[in-house]
Design goal:
It comes from Saccharobesus litoralis. This is WYL domain-containing protein. Pfam families: BrxR_CTD, WYL. The structure is a single chain. The chain is α+β, with helices and mostly antiparallel strands and 236 residues long. The chain has 3 domains: 53 residues, no CATH class; 82 residues, SH3 type barrels, CATH 2.30.30; 76 residues, no CATH class. Helices cover 28% and strands 30% of the residues. It contains 9 helices and 10 strands. It has a 5-stranded antiparallel β-sheet. A hairpin with a 4-residue loop joins strand 4 and strand 5. The radius of gyration is 23 Å and the shape is globular. The model has no long low-confidence stretch (mean pLDDT 86).
Length: 236
């Protein structure tokens, strides 16, 4: 606590009545971001060690688990870290068959609903996204293990694009103002930085990939000029 006070002077004071230290108005987070998402995640994952009287009531949706093999994931993580190639079997959504693939993975990605790995695919001669639950069987090390295509060669991964969103213009002026407040928009818009390779997932996550027939169900849309600019990445 003394070390933290050195980092953030006057950040908390002792409440003699309750016999606890409390944060003051001058408190600023030093070891965390201070976001509500971070706080709720920490609280939810630590409720099991807290006294029942101090628990915060939090509920979240239970999403279906994916069939991910921990053994294969360990191999993929090692290949990402060491910039190596893998000879691995992948279930093709197009054919429904297991296909042998030689890939050079570089990053694990969670899109909010599932995990995939970004990797160079030697069959397609391009960087692709591979869903972790579709990897099966044993992993073989390639004769030439060192990856010749790494993250620095992934142009769409290294390209950052701003996704500009705005309230659905079909909403009333009062409704649009509420949406602006919800998303902390400035001048009626919000620019969200996103890797070009992940744009399609962001659009799906924010329900922006298709227009809802009811504006109240849509709420936000991509600004028209931005929509045209990101077209190559929406359909990749």
């Amino acid at each position: 606590m003394e070390k933290y006070k050195l980092m953030n002077p006057d950040c908390f004071a002792y409440d003699k009545l309750e016999k606890v230290f409390k944060a003051t108005d001058k408190f600023r987070p030093q070891l965390t971001s201070g976001s509500i998402e971070e706080y709720l995640f920490f609280t939810d994952h630590n409720n099991f060690i807290e006294d029942v009287s101090t628990q915060l009531s939090i509920e979240k949706l239970i999403l279906p688990s994916r069939n991910i093999d921990p053994y294969l994931v360990r191999k993929i993580i090692n290949a990402c870290r060491d910039q190596e190639r893998l000879d691995i079997a992948y279930l093709s959504l197009k054919s429904g068959d297991m296909e042998a693939r030689i890939i050079a993975p570089h990053t694990l990605v969670n899109d909010g609903l599932r995990w995939h790995v970004r990797a160079y695919c030697e069959k397609n001669k391009a960087f692709r996204d591979f869903v972790l639950s579709r990897f099966h069987s044993e992993v073989d090390e390639c004769v030439y293990k060192v990856a010749t295509h790494t993250v620095k060669d992934d142009n769409e991964w290294n390209k950052w694009v701003e996704i500009v969103i705005q309230p659905d213009p079909r909403l009333t002026s009062i409704q649009r103002k509420c949406i602006e407040i919800d998303y902390m928009m400035e001048n009626g818009v919000l620019a969200i930085p996103c890797r070009a390779a992940l744009i399609k997932y962001l659009l799906q996550r924010l329900n922006l990939h298709a227009l809802h027939h009811q504006p109240e169900g849509q709420q936000i849309i991509v600004e028209s000029n931005c929509w045209q600019q990101i077209e190559p990445y929406r359909i990749n």
